[in-house]
């Protein structure tokens, strides 16, 4: 009998993909760095029983309505705003993501970005490499304290809670805003629920971890940045389109807020001529929230397992919406 056909949209380590080869014919896009062109993705989807996709691949109605054999899309990310999960469900296609395995790694990154922005780590590293360090001086690259300050976490899911845990180790006061109350974070970490407005007014560090949905798109704009303290630092490890970037640029230029640490952008990859990247008080990194070798390996293994389970009629975990 003909084996089912799996298309993987980036080159992944062969030893990980091997797990799938017992049950399927597997083809991978041949580059790790360059995204599969849209027309190739559409052609492959039209033949595939399963797709292993990246968050940069658009799995939309056009793709889903021309994929007659498709049974599963396993997305290598916890976020899934790149996938039209409603059309997928209507077409009987299962969609999975990679929750849990990336929680701590992404929280580590969010907290590193907060520390790096507050303590001007990137500016300091640049300063020394450019040979500008001529003498020690009292306020040289002085940043702002993190310990004993107030953190406001917008999006208190598993990653938010893991960030709160790190913040509690820094003796921070923890505020949060979320669709629903997180009672575990309240009882175990002393996190306090706030309206978005209250959180923005009171926090020294605002950490955005929301997924991108119709409700969260453009959640942070001019009005929200104006509500923040002038000393506030804004961190985004959620999704870029949650922020109106022109308004963030203005807020930073006007001194409405002090700095921003950004892992995600409206358009990815962001152009290196983007006005945000001209500001010294912005620490920008290329969407590497879950990018540790250990975690990315686990995420790939989980995607392969989900596909294998689906193709062999076993129960599939982490089906969306979850
Ligand atoms: C994801 O997996 O959705 C996150 O953006 C991690 O980087």
UniProtKB/TrEMBL annotation:
Q: Does the keyword Oxidoreductase apply?
A: yes
Q: Which organism is it from?
A: Sutcliffiella cohnii
The D-isomer specific 2-hydroxyacid dehydrogenase catalytic domain extends over 6-319
Q: Which Pfam families match?
A: 2-Hacid_dh, 2-Hacid_dh_C
Single Gene Ontology MF annotation: glyoxylate reductase (NADPH) activity
Q: Source taxonomy lineage?
A: Bacteria, Bacillati, Bacillota, Bacilli, Bacillales
All copies of domain D-isomer specific 2-hydroxyacid dehydrogenase NAD-binding, residue ranges? 111-289
Q: What's the protein here called?
A: D-glycerate dehydrogenase
Any single Gene Ontology cellular-component annotation: cytosol
Family from the record: Belongs to the D-isomer specific 2-hydroxyacid dehydrogenase family.
Gene3D superfamilies in alphabetical order: NAD(P)-binding Rossmann-like Domain (3.40.50.720)
Q: What UniProt keywords apply to this chain's record, in alphabetical order? A: Oxidoreductase
**Which InterPro entries does the UniProt entry name for this protein?**
D-isomer_2-hydroxyacid_DH (IPR050223), D-isomer_2_OHA_DH_cat_dom (IPR006139), D-isomer_DH_CS (IPR029753), D-isomer_DH_CS1 (IPR029752), D-isomer_DH_NAD-bd (IPR006140), NAD(P)-bd_dom_sf (IPR036291)
């Amino acid at each position: 009998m003909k084996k089912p056909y799996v298309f993987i949209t980036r080159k992944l380590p062969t030893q990980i993909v091997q797990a799938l080869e017992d049950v399927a014919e597997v083809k991978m896009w041949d580059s790790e760095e360059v995204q599969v062109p849209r027309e190739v993705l559409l052609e492959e989807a039209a033949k595939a029983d399963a797709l292993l996709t990246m968050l940069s691949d658009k799995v939309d109605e056009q793709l889903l309505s021309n994929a007659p054999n498709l049974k599963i899309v396993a997305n290598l990310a916890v976020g899934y705003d790149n996938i039209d999960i409603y059309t997928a469900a209507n077409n009987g296609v299962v969609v999975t993501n990679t929750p849990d395995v990336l929680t701590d790694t992404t929280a580590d990154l969010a907290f590193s970005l907060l520390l790096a922005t507050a303590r001007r780590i990137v500016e300091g590293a640049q300063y020394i490499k450019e040979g500008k360090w001529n003498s020690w001086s009292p306020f040289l690259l002085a940043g702002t304290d993190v310990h004993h300050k107030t953190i406001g976490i917008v999006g208190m899911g598993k990653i938010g809670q893991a960030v709160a845990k790190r913040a509690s180790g820094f003796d921070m006061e923890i505020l949060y805003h979320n669709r629903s109350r997180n009672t575990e974070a309240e009882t175990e970490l002393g996190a306090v629920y706030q309206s978005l407005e209250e959180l923005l007014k009171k926090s020294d560090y605002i950490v955005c971890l929301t997924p991108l949905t119709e409700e969260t798109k453009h959640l942070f704009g001019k009005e929200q940045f104006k509500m923040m303290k002038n000393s506030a630092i804004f961190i985004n490890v959620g999704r870029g389109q949650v922020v109106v970037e022109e308004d963030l640029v203005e807020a930073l230029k006007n001194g409405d807020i002090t700095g921003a640490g950004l892992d995600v952008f409206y358009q990815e990859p962001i152009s290196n001529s983007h006005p945000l990247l001209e500001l010294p008080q912005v620490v920008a990194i290329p969407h590497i929230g879950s990018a540790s070798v250990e975690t990315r390996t686990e995420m790939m293994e989980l995607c392969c397992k989900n596909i294998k389970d689906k193709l062999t009629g076993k129960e599939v975990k982490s089906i969306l919406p979850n």
